[in-house]
Amino acid sequence: MADKILIVEDDTNLLETIKYNLRKEGYDVVTAGDGEAALDTARQEKPGLLILDVMLPKLNGFEVCRILRKEMTVPILMLTAKADETDKIVGLEIGADDYMTKPFSMRELMARTRALLRRAKMIEPPAAEGTSPIKIGDLEVDIARHRISSKGKELELSPKEFDLLVFLAKNKGLVFNREQLLEKVWGYDFAGDTRTVDVHIRWLRQKIEVDASAPQYLVTIRGTGYKLEG
């Protein structure tokens, strides 16, 4: 069964171009032209991936992302016409998994689509007997149940924050640079924007650390990268 992808874009020409290329790759594609329609379609169709423009009629992409992130774990790739880094960071911080700035190549869009769908399928299945959570200080990383908790309190992480923490927890004490994390967690097989990693690290620290400015768990190794310790 083909993966279903929802494209939300009010530029008809761009929407048709993306739809054509995705269908050529074998995906099942549904579309919406405004923010309100995006919510209705996502809830009805339950897509495996959402490609979401920021500038939309009725309800902008940020609001759509914020609302859907509370309801479902669908990977979200945001499209922005602005090169302003603030737009990108806002999108990531409200739960988007990735972003692309217009204009972009269809080849790169297809590559990122495949990467996001591949990562979504790699989430561990429900708990198997004998599967134990990973404990790091007060943190407990329960991969099988897809839960992260601190001192017994469950933390709310975006899907990509969860993936990043799980990867680092499985490799506790090992240092990874931004390019390695981009490849291992995001699944990119091309040169991506490493600022994506920095944004997710910063946001993750605000959720798992007592003091994000002096991290105990997710530490920076100057000139090298990041590691999880504790």
At the fourth level of CATH, the homologous superfamily of the largest domain is Response regulator
Total number of helices: 8
What is the residue-mean pLDDT, rounded to a whole number?
86
CATH fold type of the largest domain: Rossmann fold
What report would you give on this structure?
The protein is an alpha/beta fold. The chain folds into two domains: 4-121, Response regulator (Rossmann fold, 3-Layer(aba) Sandwich), CATH 3.40.50.2300; 134-228, Winged helix-like DNA-binding domain superfamily/Winged helix DNA-binding domain (Arc Repressor Mutant, subunit A). The chain contains eight helices and eleven strands. The strands form three sheets. It has a five-stranded parallel β-sheet with strand order 2-1-3-4-5, sandwiched between helices. Strands 6-7-8-9 form a four-stranded antiparallel β-sheet, covered by helices on one side. A hairpin with a 2-residue loop joins β8 (147-150) and β9 (153-154). α2 packs parallel to α3 (61-71), α6 crosses α7 (178-186) and α6 packs across α8 (195-208). The protein is globular.
